[in-house]
Every structure is written in structure tokens, then in C-alpha cells.
Amino acid sequence: MTMFPVKAKKSLGQHFLKDKEIARRIAATLDDVAGLPILEVGPGTGMLTQFLLEKERDLTVVEIDHESVAYLDRHFPQLEGKILQQDFLRMDLPSYFDGNLCIIGNYPYNISSQIFFKVLDNKYIIPCCAGMIQKEVAERLVAAPGKKTYGILSVLLQAWYDVEYLFTVDEQAFVPPPKVKSAVVRLTRNKRRRLACDEKLFKKVVKTGFNQRRKMLRNSIKSLLPDETPLPDDPLLTKRPEQLSIEQFEELTNLLEPLVI
């Protein structure tokens, strides 16, 4: 533990990366989008930060842990004025960045899904996002229709991003070692600029369907409609949510829109 003077806090989901080669490979995931500023989420003791600084990009880091912030202040003077001590999930990103930015990090395990929802909320200014998360979450992000791991994040993220599973990381690459394997993923904005349906209702339909994923959609989406509203006679409603592609979810959203409360 002498390598890491900052104590990993379970409440913050901290597992500090100690493998320099893994950190170097994660930093390289943004090389294809050179020129854009980078926001690193949860830098901890700066294992990834040191390799991002080598890129000579405009780098800002956001860290909620005051002990980590103090450590970064002491050891990375080149980050003066670029260390934000706050909760990434509460940040108003457009107020900090003038234009597009990339997000990267060894993300805290306990909020990794929330981080991706935050990216989705800011998709028009985040053309690329990369980083390390739990392997099982990474598998959900890249899952295709028909897979058991295909779910809410799969549909919502893949609607706007090309999602790549880059490589797996062993537990022993961290201090303390997590109980699960990790994986590095990269999200790159696709060509879709708008959905072929109402976006707000699309999200609601996707979430409602997967909240009861074992049921046919005709049963799970009843809660979106006024009582006694007859459902359309459409084959999409006889499927389970994991069977639908993004385009079919768009079609289903349009089918339900005239009926929704």
C-alpha cells in the first residue's frame, strides 16, 4: 500500500489502477480524436493522468475525494487550475467547456452506469468517451439484440454511439483488487443525429420494457397507457424487449405515441 498514499474508499467505489501499461493503453484510446479537450473522471492517484498529460492535450480532471485532490495538487503541478473537486454526475458540462470534449477514466464501479447516462445527456458535446468499467457492465454496453446481457444501456447508448469492447483487465491490476474483472470500452458518436420518434418517449418505452424483461411487451408497457386503453394488434407487442433492435424500439414508440397519457 505504500505505492498508494491515498486510501481507497469503498463508499466511492475506488480501486486504484497500478499497472502502468494498462494505463498507457487506456490513454491511447483517445488518440484518434486528437485536438479535443479531455475530462478525466476520478483520477485518484493519477496513474492514468500521467499518460494523458504526455498527449499535450487540454486536460481537466474531476475528483470528488478530497484526499485524492490533495495528492494530485502536490504531484501534478501542470494541472494547476485544472483539478475540479466535485461530483461529475452533478456537473453542468457546457458551463466548463466551450465546445466538444472527450471523457475518459478508470470509472468508480458504483456509479459506472450513471456516468454513461450522464454522457448520454450530453451526447451533442461528447463525440468520444472511453474508460475502464466492470466487465459485466462492458458486456451489457456492447450486447446485441437477442443476448441476455442486452438491456436499457445497450439500447440507449447504441442509439447514439458505436460501442467497442477493447480489452479485459485482470483483478490484480488494481489496489485493492476488485472481486470482478474489468474491461476497457470506447464510445464514438455515430451518424444518427435524431431518432425517428419522440426521444423522451423512446427512453420511457425502453426503460419500461426492460424493467419487466421476462414479459411480452404487450404486458409490460400497459403502465404507459390510460386504463382500459386497447393495445394495437401489432407483432412487436408479442416480443420481449431483448428481441427488439433500436429501429424496432423506434417503431414501437411511434405505435404507442397516440395512446400514451
List keywords for this structure.
10 helices; Rossmann fold; single chain; seven-stranded mixed sheet; two-stranded antiparallel sheet; about 260 residues; elongated; about 15% strand; about 30% helix; Helicase, Ruva Protein, domain 3; alpha/beta
Name the CATH architecture of the largest domain: 3-Layer(aba) Sandwich
Q: Assess the beta-strand content as a share of residues.
A: 15-25%
Q: Structural class, from helix and strand content?
A: alpha/beta
Strand count? 9
The H-and-E topology, N to C, reads as EHEHEHEHEHEHHEEEHHH
Taken from the alpha-carbon principal axes, the silhouette is elongated
Low-confidence stretches: none
Q: Major sheet: size, sense and barrel closure?
A: 7 strands, mixed
Physical arrangement of strands within the biggest beta sheet: 4-3-2-5-6-9-7
How confident overall, as mean pLDDT? 93
CATH class of the largest domain: Alpha Beta
Please report the distance between the alpha carbons of the first and last residues: 56 Å
Number of H/I helices: 10
What is the CATH topology of the largest domain? Rossmann fold
The CATH superfamily of the largest domain is Vaccinia Virus protein VP39
Question: Which percent range fits the helix content?
Answer: 25-40%
Number of domains: 2
Rg over alpha carbons: 20 Å
What does this 3D model show about the protein?
The radius of gyration is 20 Å and the shape is elongated. It has helices spanning 20-27, 49-53, 66-75, 93-96, 112-121, 135-142, 152-158, 199-211, 217-220, 246-256, and strands spanning 16-17, 38-41, 59-62, 83-84, 102-106, 128-134, 161-169, 174-175, 182-189. The mean pLDDT is 93. The strands form two sheets. The protein has a seven-stranded mixed β-sheet with strand order 4-3-2-5-6-9-7. A two-stranded antiparallel sheet has the order 1-8. It has two domains: 10-189, Vaccinia Virus protein VP39 (Rossmann fold, 3-Layer(aba) Sandwich), CATH 3.40.50; 199-259, Helicase, Ruva Protein, domain 3. Helix 8 (199-211) packs across helix 10 (246-256). Helices cover 31% and strands 16% of the residues. It contains ten helices and nine strands. The chain starts with 15 loop residues before the first strand and ends in a 5-residue tail after the last helix. It is of the alpha/beta class and 261 residues long. Helix 2 links the parallel strand 2 and strand 3 (59-62).
